[in-house]
Write a structure and sequence with these properties.
Belongs to the IRC6 family. GO terms for molecular function: protein-macromolecule adaptor activity. About 45% of the residues lie in helices and about 20% in strands. It contains 9 helices and 8 strands. Helix 8 (about 235-250) packs antiparallel against helix 9 (about 255-274). It is globular.
């Protein structure tokens, strides 16, 4: 089966290898190319990912700017290097790579938040140019991290999330995990969910046993019927309807393209529930 390609790009100490480790941790056969102390550009992590619906092969490709990580760089240097990378990315020589990508993840160190406005401008331009291509149907996200051993203030993380959301770009805070008040996965769990729910270019669909599927469905329908007849019972069905209501409120504040992707995720979850 052909691999699906995801590009992970960011400056040094912004979590690129941690992201690839998180996505590949369930695959004992995963391999990673040699990590150089001079630059993480060119590192490739191969792995497989399986859900109860499909299995895929993944090739996680890591790119880094500046080209030499041993020299300290200013925010202005990061911006200049990212702008140059963008110019190279949209050359004719890179068309084959662009067409092969199922997703791009931009990483940044949340303790260098003064870099964020310029990063967002560059990502906006990259997204706009990708969307001009009819062949692009991948995902795009910004992942915020802090170097191992460092901390970041809660108010700063909240401000970063608010700023990125106003651009209609998915933001994932890798310092978080679990489920928020909307019963949505956040942080590391959301990043895994992003991979698990994407409509990949190449997938091997799992054939579910029809008898097992029907028995499971009948059992759930019976539980739902029992719960509906028991007015005093707070149950999973009520939780699901509550989540749909909260999701509708959240979707109203998203741009149209993000709203459609979000709605698809909620529908998939509801179909899995029933």
């Amino acid at each position: 089966m052909l691999p699906n390609h995801v590009l992970i790009i960011g400056p040094p100490n912004s979590g690129k290898l941690r992201i690839s480790d998180l996505i590949s941790k369930g695959d004992e056969t995963s391999t990673r190319s040699v990590v150089s102390s001079d630059s993480h550009s060119g590192i490739i992590q191969t792995c497989s990912l399986s859900t109860k619906y499909y299995s895929i092969n993944l090739k996680l490709m890591i790119d880094e700017y500046p080209s030499n990580r041993n020299n300290s760089a200013s925010v202005d240097k990061y911006i200049k290097e990212l702008s140059e990378w963008k110019g190279d990315f949209f050359t004719d020589e890179m068309k084959e790579l662009r067409d092969a990508l199922d997703g791009i993840i931009f990483t940044f160190n949340m303790n260098i938040d003064q870099f964020l406005p310029n990063l967002l401008n560059e990502v906006d331009e990259i997204r706009a140019q990708l969307e001009l291509s009819s062949s692009w149907d991948g995902f795009l996200a910004i992942v915020g991290t802090v170097p191992l051993g460092e901390g970041v203030e809660l108010y700063k993380m909240d401000a970063i999330e608010d700023e990125i959301i106003t651009h209609g770009i998915e933001f994932i805070n890798l310092e978080k995990s679990g489920i928020n008040e909307y019963r949505e996965r956040v942080g590391k769990d959301r990043l895994v969910e992003l991979f698990e729910t994407h409509d990949w270019s190449t997938m091997d669909l799992v054939e579910r046993d029809q008898v097992e599927y029907q028995e499971s469905k009948n059992s759930k329908l019976q539980d739902m019927q029992t719960s509906l007849l028991n007015e005093g019972n707070s149950n999973d069905l009520e939780d699901m309807f509550s989540k749909i209501s909260l999701a509708r409120e959240k979707a109203n504040g998203l741009p149209q393209d993000e709203r459609e992707k979000y709605a698809k995720e909620i529908v998939d979850e509801f179909m899995e529930f029933i």
